[in-house]
Amino acid sequence: MSQERIAAIVGIHEYPLRDVGGLMSPLQIKAACAAKALEDAGLSWADVDGLYDAGDGGGAMSGLNIAEYFGLKPNVIDTTAVGGSSYEFHAAHAKRDIAAGKVRVALLTYGSTAHSNARAIGVGGQGGGNHHPADVMETFAGATLISNYAMVAQRHMFEYGTTSEQLAEISTATRYHAMRNPDAVQAMEDLEFLDIRETTIEDVVNSRMIADPLHLLECCMISDGGGAVVIASAEVAKNCRKAPVWILGSGEATKYPEIGGDLTTSAAIQSAPLAFSDAGVTPAEIDIAMIYDSFSITVLTLLEDLGFCKKGEGGAWVAGGKLRFDRPAEGPALNTDGGGLSSNHPGMRGIFLLIESARQLRDESNAQVENAKLAIAHGNGGMLGSRHTAGTIILGRD
Amino acid sequence: MSEAKRPLPSAKEHDTQAFWAATRNKEFIYQQCKACHTVIFYPRRHCTGCTDGELEWKQSNGQGTVYSFSVVRQSYHPFFRNQVPYVVAWIDMDEGPRILSNIVGLAASDKEVSIGQRVTIEWEEHEALSIPLFVTID
Ligand SMILES: [Zn+2]
């Protein structure tokens, strides 16, 4: 089963703006990106027979209205909505549906106006809800989203001696890449970042503490934005405009608070082995690591759980700038588009992990790793420090 | 403008209403399966360990240990923005349940807490229920 060529990413588009000034809706961004991604593939709306949607823009019953909005008549509608990893789940399901002969051309879209809506995602009070029993038990504590992740970092530091300086490596590597991506630089200008330049470890650890032990420069931005990905069968991919980027493996999992649970381990511990065994490759072979960087600790935890290093050794493993795109001999390049930390995070970043992976495997990245052959896109949905989902996708070129 | 209040749990949610009813008497209760002895928390109607077990309510001694914590220094929530800096923590109760709460009563200047710190419940009383906050003990 290894390295099977059943389904490939054939079209991609990332919406270039991170601040639409309130002039676009999420649905409009989704449609604009879909058209561009289809064009990128050399396909058109009429070719789409599988539609994958996380409810951004269309709401909880988006399956009821999203096809109409696009003007499509799909044979498969999948509305898996598991937060920021939804798009890795969608890619996995698209491949499965293509393998089953139900779909030839799958369309994944994302649109968000989180910045224009001035949603204080990170530091807002948690818990809109008083309906799910988990919300009823937790909302009173006022744990912000950042503090949810900070408690993972605190425990990681306690158990393994991880330091803020080590966590800062994640931030400096992604900023290093962002400075090579004109859209990311523009994003930081539009979102009024104070100091737009390559950062140092000292910059990160000296930035303002938001929720101990996480500093400002360890937290992702809140942008507007969106994107689209077109996934096609091998037969369709043959005639597409761009080289196919094959979906070689996938894994899905979820994790939640449990009595005696280990906060330093994520659902990736379950999804990653599934994806690697599917693909018939090992972490050591991966050139590009597109890993959901909501916060520095998210990446450190996921690098361990994905198998790049042992649990607890992530801090030492990332040290010395090895995650940069120009150090391919030292390991995979991390988030070469600039990541959610420094390029694009409108709330559910998972689709950009697929998009930048595809760019790298097509030699189209602004921080191109020479001869990149294998990429991993790992999305984390929900919250790392409580209930979350993991979607792992392994991608390869011809 | 009235002062913002702590967001309080619904006392009517089906799975958790018994837990909150007990807090009126300053009791922290949790469930355990009579058949397979699985401890269930947050509260539910069914056992997650077996398919036919009956759950019984047990009372915690109100003490636990800090599993992890963070000092929140920025919040936009109408109530919590006025509380910063404040400590949120996952606390492992001695009987097993892990609860998300606040550690209160610390000096405003340092908020010095550590993982492994022993804590005990300090109830914050409200009209229809009490909230289990925690203070450190030696
Ligand atoms: Zn049972």
Radius of gyration of chain A: 19 Å
Into which percentage range does the β-strand content of chain A fall?
15-25%
Amount of helix of chain A: 25-40%
The ordered string of helix (H) and strand (E) elements of chain B is HEEEEEEEE
What is the average per-residue confidence, as pLDDT of chain A, rounded to a whole number? 95
Low-confidence sequence ranges of chain A: none
As a whole number of angstroms, the C-alpha radius of gyration of chain B is 16 Å
* DSSP, total strands of chain B: 8
Helix content of chain B: under 10%
Bound molecules: zinc ion
Assign an overall shape of chain A.
Answer: globular
Structural class of chain A: alpha/beta
For the largest interface, the chains and their residue counts are:
A-B, 40 and 44 residues
Largest sheet composition of chain B: 5 strands, antiparallel
Tell me which CATH architecture of chain A applies here: 3-Layer(aba) Sandwich
Q: Give the strand line-up of the largest sheet of chain B.
A: 6-5-4-7-8
CATH fourth-tier homologous superfamily of chain A? Thiolase/Chalcone synthase
Output the strand order for the largest sheet of chain A: 3-2-4-7-1-8-12-11-9-10
Shape of chain B: globular
Tally of individual helices of chain A: 14
Blueprint of the fold:
The complex is a heterodimer of chains A (398) and B (138).
Chain A: E1 7-14, H1 26-41, E2 50-52, H2 66-70, E3 76-78, H3 86-99, E4 105-112, H4 133-138, H5 145-160, H6 164-178, H7 182-190, H8 201-206, E5 209-211, E6 214-215, E7 225-233, H9 234-237, E8 245-255, H10 268-279, E9 288-291, H11 296-305, H12 314-318, E10 333-334, H13 339-342, H14 350-361, E11 374-382, E12 388-397
Parallel strand pairs in A: 2-3, 2-4, 9-10, 9-11
Antiparallel strand pairs in A: 1-7, 1-8, 4-7, 5-6, 8-12, 11-12
Helix pairs in contact in A: 6-11
Chain B: H1 17-23, E1 29-33, E2 39-40, E3 55-59, E4 63-72, E5 86-93, E6 98-103, E7 118-125, E8 130-136
The complex binds zinc ion (ZN).
